Amino acid sequence: MKHFLISITLLCSAGCSMFTEKMGMQAEQTIANDARSVAAPMANAELFQSKQAVPNTASQMASVSRKNINHYVRGMMQDMAENLQYVNQKTPLAVSSFVFLDDEYDDASLLGNQLSESFMHELHHFGVAVIDFKTTDYMRVTPQGDFVFSRDYLELNEEQNFQYVLAGTLVNHQGGVLVNARIIGLMSKAVVGSAQGFIPQTVVDALGSSYRTDGIMMKKAGR
């Protein structure tokens, strides 16, 4: 009888041990399954596709708006410098206003005039001799200010010392303006350098022209 009780006790101990071990294995398996069921973090594209988040387009627009016209002119000037011929420090060059391709060639917009100013800076930066033909031979002093520039041809020299001119045309395009720039020999009419570029509409709209109404300076968007 004593041996029988000892045997039952041993069997019960072994059974409890096996049951405890089995429960432990099941718990570990459950934890492992739960760990595998946790979804991996989604990439940005997947997050946007799942519509769980909205892309921050404001920051993208801000990065574009921080780039002004000079940024795009700089890129076009670099392209032009790669194929530029005959123009150097000893060949004076002038820059004309850019005009719209489908408009009159004697009517420049604020955008066309600003492109001219920007290209003058870039040409000088590249070491090209630039002639500012709008500079008079004198300083005009008035109550409104002191001026040396003029757009009146009667106030400018009839003879100008430049052999080449940088000119260009503009074309309105969806989302912006296409720019066609080229350097032309005045005598030969040969194109000795060219470049093309695109200016986003947001950058164009950032320009503001000035006009006066009843003596008050006003601002309006450039054409």
UniProtKB/TrEMBL annotation:
Residues 75-203 form the FlgO domain. The lineage of its organism: Bacteria, Pseudomonadati, Pseudomonadota, Gammaproteobacteria, Alteromonadales. It comes from the Bacteria. This is FlgO domain-containing protein.
